User: Which sequence fits this backbone?
């Protein structure tokens, strides 16, 4: 090149599109997001604002709503730790060992993503329902599954178990086993290796997975709807309660509870963005389908 | 401590990565495992460490059979190919790791750990970098942190997998010299893997040449370079030329013409190997004959690529021509190796 000394020019990035195309794509995405996300969420908040603070507080402090909130929180409080343990174990096995049926296990973990939530709930009805052998037995022993807390818990676990595992698997696969081998060659036990080396390596992705898992655990409707039985004040979670209020023409009430769930989604989104900004490299590797 | 590798075989599934490998390592030796990629060097090193278990055979540490001992029990220092430093820990914490994970009975008190870690960091010339993270170090510095970390557990043997593999040429040379001095100072039995022959020949007391899961030859740099015991070693280590010959009752013939060379190798179709510089040009009498295809100049000599088939099929070899000899592309020359091996 003859004119290397000439005025600095700005070579266009090889993969970047012409400005027009770029703006068009951005515009389309923005309009799409506005129509399908911002407008509906805005409506929820708008309804609550229009109905007024008093009405909001009234709905929230109703005993049925309180019970729905309590149920949702306790299901999530149990299901998330459960999936945390399962997710780490599954990701560990898949990422760090070679064994027969590994591909099958990986596919299996994705199952809840590809199956309709209604079916996920129905599975437990078929297993523990009134006309099965197991269901009535357990009920007689004072431990009912269907139309009770355990059923809701099981359905929630089923629907949410891929979130953490899928977040961890690609990261752990990329990291390989070298760090763990280094730790054991230095005399660390398996547990010490896990706590001091493996866990710190995956902690941000893990936190991210937990956030997603929690959001879904609190928001799940379909699977829970099948097993819950919709007993007001007993087996109604927040999403179910919203539907019940709505069907009772208590629209303001429905929107009040919905705004709580929407707030949760917002908090998750914000935390997630913060995580991605801060630890972009580790987080968000697992792409959800 | 002596290490005896006794008829080790290692299979991954059906694939034998090592066949029947035996090797005695003397206490305090610096040994290089040299071979092309995939020859089983890393596998052998991992077997000694206990990161892998043999399919057959034994590994003895001194008099004790260590074949089935866990990595933790073996107390070896292992430096991984890409260092495997804990990136969320500082240099200090990396080096201290092996001491801190000890059971409360064997764990030195805090002050003692601090003293020993600082001593090690000083030994690998990284004083002042204790609180840096691996991401803030150069390749050569990481390499030395990995070494200090491995040394902290006072290992019975030091194992290094391609210790200089990921470094640039200059740093490589410096570290190579440094490792030799480090070894002489600490006197650890050391086994390191490399695919770089220069590194192996320069650094090691003895070189173990491996190919396809087998040991081809064990010996000093002189043994390996001057007295290669197999065709593989001859062509893998150093420059070499190779031509097909026929041996009949000790006489060596090339393309039906006698060469005047004699050998104790048995009759049959063989190959003759020689170094490009170990030849003498011949005016008359029996010799190898070839046409010069191209020439290039090295510092003190000329390298000629010749076609020893004289047109019929290409038997290309490179030989070194003294500077004074008149020769040019296309001219025919006659030569005999004065040092050679036939396999
Ligand atoms: N965990 C493993 N599973 C299957 N094959 C392996 C494994 N480790 C090594 N091998 C195979 O064993 C052979 C020797 O590998 P390795 O010891 O890593 O060679 P080197 O270190 O000399 O390059 C290679 O062919 C490699 O593919
Ligand atoms: Mg290797």
Assistant:
């Amino acid at each position: 090149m003859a004119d290397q000394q000439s005025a600095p020019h700005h070579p266009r990035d090889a993969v970047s599109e012409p400005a027009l195309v770029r703006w068009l794509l951005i515009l389309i995405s923005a309009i799409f997001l506005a129509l399908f996300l911002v407008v509906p969420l805005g409506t929820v908040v708008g309804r609550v604002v229009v109905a007024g603070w008093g009405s909001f507080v009234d709905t929230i402090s109703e005993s049925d709503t309180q019970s729905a909130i309590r149920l949702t929180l306790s299901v999530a409080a149990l299901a998330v730790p459960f999936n945390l343990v399962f997710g780490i174990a599954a990701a560990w096995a898949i990422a760090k060992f070679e064994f027969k049926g590994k591909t099958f296990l990986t596919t299996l973990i994705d199952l809840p993503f590809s199956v309709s939530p209604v079916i996920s709930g129905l599975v437990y009805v078929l297993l523990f329902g009134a006309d099965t052998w197991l269901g009535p037995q357990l009920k007689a022993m004072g431990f009912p599954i269907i139309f009770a807390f355990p059923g809701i818990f099981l359905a929630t676990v089923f629907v949410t178990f891929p979130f953490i595992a899928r977040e961890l698997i690609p990261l752990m696969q990329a990291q390989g086993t070298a760090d763990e081998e280094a730790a054991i060659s230095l005399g660390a036990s398996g547990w010490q290796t896990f706590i001091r080396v493996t866990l710190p390596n995956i902690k941000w992705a893990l936190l991210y997975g937990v956030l997603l898992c929690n959001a879904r655990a609190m928001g799940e409707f379909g699977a829970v709807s099948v097993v819950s039985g919709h007993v007001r004040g007993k087996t109604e979670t927040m999403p179910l309660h919203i539907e019940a209020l709505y069907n009772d023409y208590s629209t303001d009430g429905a929107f009040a509870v919905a705004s709580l769930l929407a707030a949760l989604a917002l908090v998750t989104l914000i935390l997630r963005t913060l995580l991605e900004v801060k630890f972009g490299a580790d987080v968000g590797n697992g792409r959800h389908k | 401590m002596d290490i005896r590798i006794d008829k080790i075989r290692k299979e991954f599934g059906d694939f034998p990565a090592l066949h029947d490998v035996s090797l005695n390592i003397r206490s305090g030796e610096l040994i290089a495992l040299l071979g092309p990629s995939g020859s089983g060097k890393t596998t052998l090193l991992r077997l000694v460490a206990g990161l892998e278990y043999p399919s057959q055979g034994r590994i003895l540490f001194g008099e004790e059979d260590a074949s089935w001992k866990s990595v933790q029990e073996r107390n070896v220092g292992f430096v991984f190919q890409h260092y495997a430093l804990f990136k969320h820990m500082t240099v200090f914490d990396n080096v201290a790791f092996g001491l801190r994970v000890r059971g409360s009975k064997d764990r030195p008190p805090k002050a003692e750990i601090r003293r020993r870690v600082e001593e090690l960091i000083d030994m690998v010339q990284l004083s002042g970098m204790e609180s840096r993270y691996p991401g803030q170090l150069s390749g050569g510095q990481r390499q030395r942190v990995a070494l200090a970390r491995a040394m902290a557990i006072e290992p019975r043997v030091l194992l290094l997998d391609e210790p200089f593999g990921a470094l640039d040429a200059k740093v490589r040379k410096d570290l190579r010299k440094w490792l030799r001095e480090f070894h002489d100072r600490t006197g650890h039995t050391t086994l390191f893997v490399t695919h770089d022959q220069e590194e192996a020949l320069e650094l090691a007391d003895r070189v173990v040449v491996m190919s396809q899961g087998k040991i081809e030859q064990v010996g000093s740099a002189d043994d390996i370079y001057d007295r290669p015991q197999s065709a593989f070693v001859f062509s893998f280590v150093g420059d070499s030329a190779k031509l097909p010959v026929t041996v009949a009752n000790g006489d060596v013939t090339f393309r039906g013409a006698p060469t005047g060379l004699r050998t104790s190798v048995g009759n049959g179709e063989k190959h003759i190997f020689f170094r490009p510089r170990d030849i003498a040009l011949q005016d008359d009498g029996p010799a190898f004959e070839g046409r010069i295809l191209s020439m290039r100049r090295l510092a003190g000599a000329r390298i000629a690529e010749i076609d020893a088939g004289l047109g019929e099929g290409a038997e290309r070899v490179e030989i070194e021509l003294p500077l004074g000899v008149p020769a040019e592309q296309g001219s025919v020359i006659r030569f005999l190796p004065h040092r050679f091996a036939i396999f």
Q: What stands out?
A: The pocket of adenosine-5'-diphosphate (ligand 1) is lined by residues B 12, 15, 17, 35, 37-43 (CB under 6 Å). The CA atoms of residues 204 and 279 of chain A lie 7 Å apart. The interface with chain B takes residues 178-179, 181-189, 192, 196-197, 200-201 of chain A (CB under 8 Å).
